[in-house]
Amino acid sequence: KxxxxxxxxxxxxxxxxFITINCSYSVGISALHWLQQHPGGGIVSLFMLSSGKKxxxxxxxxxxxxxxxxxxxxxxxxPRDSAVYICAVSxxxxxxxxxxxxxxxxxxxxx
Amino acid sequence: xxxxxxxxxxxxxxxxQRVTLRCSPRSGDLSVYWYQQSxxxxxxxxxxxxxxxxxxxxxILERFSAQQFPDLHSELNLSSLELGDSxxxxxxxxxxxxxxxxxxxxxxxxx
Lengths: 111, 111
Known about the structure:
The complex is a heterodimer of chains A (about 110) and B (about 110). Chain A is mainly β and about 110 residues long.
């Protein structure tokens, strides 16, 4: 069974800090996803990665397939980045969004 | 507005009852996914439909069923409801080459 572990569970940062959230998984995957869940409950897909690195604005996601590890970085964090960030994986032979989810990292950015 | 519409937003019902959750996917998306988010289990993939046909099943209980209609909207039917079925139910849709889009969810409370 593919387990997805995220760390830390909770993270509090000062505005402007560089933030890193980590995700590790136990078996081979076809893709890894980073999702953002706002306090109101809505979920937004941030990245889908199968290798390398992707950047969107202040967000950067990387994945190391050999080490079965991914990181989500937020540069120059802002209070509006406060949310739960969820790592999820899909594996070969399954549809892209038949996902196994991590438990999430709750980020609070303080002004 | 993400383009994926879920109704109702909130639902309160009694144990033993049956409810239907509805999802209209983003225009052009053929795949619909259902997920459940509960406090104890976190996010779980339930079931996927593609262009009217069931494509994959995840951790979906036998008391739950879903279908996708010719106009591509989907319904998730939950029957013989138990207290433990209280959760947020998300629908998401995707198409080849497009990232998944989540609806805002239906919050089900079983009392």
